[in-house]
Every structure is written in structure tokens, then in C-alpha cells.
């Protein structure tokens, strides 16, 4: 009986949070290969199918893939921009050698856009990861521990969040003089973690009271295991939406600050191109130089739209009804006698009754 009771307790620890689409339930009779396939299906294959079946997700994936290709393969295929590559202010679509035209220095606009993309991705990744990791860590610890530690962490969070953003950036830029795009991304999101920490703390407070967390605590599970295995799957929607929102914010902030000339022009990016277009040729008031301003604006808008579309599509990924429908269709493919809702068809039921 002792063995049976321990088995029942272990099984109870894996139920209770079925609402979480990413909570993996272990089966004791499953092989390691089956467990790996099940985890891949839960975390990769099913979300990918849901994203691809949503037109917003499909559009966002395709558009973001184009930018990734532009920042990787494109830098190899497209030559680096250089002064005097062509005639100054050549208009777009007039030459195969310079399909997007040239700027006021004769640099190829396509080369400028392509070779500025890697630095944009470096700023986005560094800033979003920094803000996400710090916000998740502080929110989880404060929400789960509570008490004095919660008060101290939230006081620090609110204090940092209350500092005016632009003056703080100006001070940090003057003190640090950032030239590395990774460092620029972190500085741009220096306050971005505060909102994430607040939101994750509030969600963790609710998760801590759920039955499966109490069962894990009663079984002597460590706090780290409870946070990573029980709390994080529930927080995935907020984490992903925060990452995508942070990426969009870093794009806008970096382009705006480079355009205003606040950040140093130590590396090529789309904001630097916009600044040169406005300062050197008055592209805002000249039709001959308008493409120098419009092309970077279109490229920036395209990446922003890709992240926005993905964020909207991820709402479907975390919708339990949508995931249940995909699971039913998967079971239907494996067993044709099942309807889309996973039940036996009426025709087969009739045949079984006749037999």
C-alpha cells in the first residue's frame, strides 16, 4: 500500500494545472524517447502549427525570416556600402547595380539597409533578454517568497521605474559612451524590466496558491524546481508578449535616439541612416533625397509589424480551446475513427452496436 500511495501522490502533483498549455505531464511507462517527443510536441510542434495556421502568425514568421536572412546571408551576398559606389542620390529602381538607389555620398541604399540589420538585431536581443531575465527573476522571487523580501524588491522596482526615462538615458550615455550595440540595447531597456517584474509578481502570487504548487511543496520539492516546473509554464504568455513588446520598444527607442544624434555613431544602423538623410541633405524637404529617408522608414516599419503580428498570433498559441482543437486533429490523424473533438464517430458507434 505504501507504494500505491506514493504513486498516487506523485500523480497528483502533475495535475491541477491542465489549463497551462505548456505543462508537460510525465507518464511512468513512457520511454525517454517518448518523453522527448512529447516535450517537443508541447513546446515546439504544436505552437508552430498554431502560429502557421493563423494568418497573422504566418505573415509575421515570413516577414521576420526575411529580416533574419537579410542580417545573415544578406551581409555575405550584398557588398558593404562605401562612399562613391555610385552617383549621388540615384533614384530607386533605375539601376540593377543599385536597386534602391544611393544616398548623398553615393553609398548603395540596399547595402546600408542590409549591413545595418545585424546591429539592430544585436540591440534587440541584448535589450529584450536583459529586461526579460531581470524582470522574470525579480518577479518570481518577490511573488513566491513574499514578506520583507517582496517589499524590498518591489520598492527597488518602483523606484527605478519612477525615474524619467530620457534624462536617465542621457546620463547613462554621457557616463558610459556606448559603442557596442549589445551595450546600447541594455541601456535602452534599462527600465523595461520594471513592468515585467510587477506583472510576473502578481501572477506568481496567484500561482503560489494553486493546488499543484501546494502539493509540490508538501512533497519537499525545492523552490527552484517549483518555480521552473510549475510557475514558469503558467507565465509563458506574459514572458513572450513582454519579449516581443520589448523588442518593438528597443527598435523605436534606438532609431529615435540615433536620429536625434543622442547616441554615438559608432556602428551602422537604421537610425544613423535617417540622421544622415535629414542632416546632410534635408531629405524631409527634398524630393530628390526623399528615398534616403523613406527606405529606412519602410524597413523599420516592416520589422515592427513582424513583431506585432507575432504577438497577436501568440494569443492563439496560449488559447486552451485552440490547442485542444489541434490536439483533437492530431489524434484524428492517428485514429481516423475519431471526430475533431476526439470522440468516436456516430457511424462507428452504430456499427459497434450492431456487432
TrEMBL record:
It is a multi-pass membrane protein. Keywords: Membrane, Transmembrane, Transmembrane helix, Transport. Residues 1-24, 325-355 are annotated as: Disordered. It is found in: Cell membrane; Membrane. InterPro entries: MetI-like, MetI-like_sf. The keyword Acetylation does not apply. The keyword Acyltransferase does not apply. The chain crosses the membrane at residues 59-78, 120-144, 156-176, 182-200, 235-260, 289-311. SUPFAM superfamilies: MetI-like (SSF161098). Signal peptide: none annotated. Residues 117-311 form the ABC transmembrane type-1 domain. One of its GO terms (biological process) is transmembrane transport. Residues 343-355 have a biased composition (Polar residues). It holds the Pfam family BPD_transp_1. PROSITE patterns: ABC_TM1. Residues 1-12 have a biased composition (Acidic residues). GO terms for cellular component: plasma membrane. It comes from the Archaea. Belongs to the binding-protein-dependent transport system permease family. PANTHER family: OLIGO/DIPEPTIDE TRANSPORT, PERMEASE PROTEIN (DPPC-2), OLIGO_DIPEPTIDE TRANSPORT, PERMEASE PROTEIN (DPPC-2). This is ABC transporter permease. It comes from Natronoglomus mannanivorans.
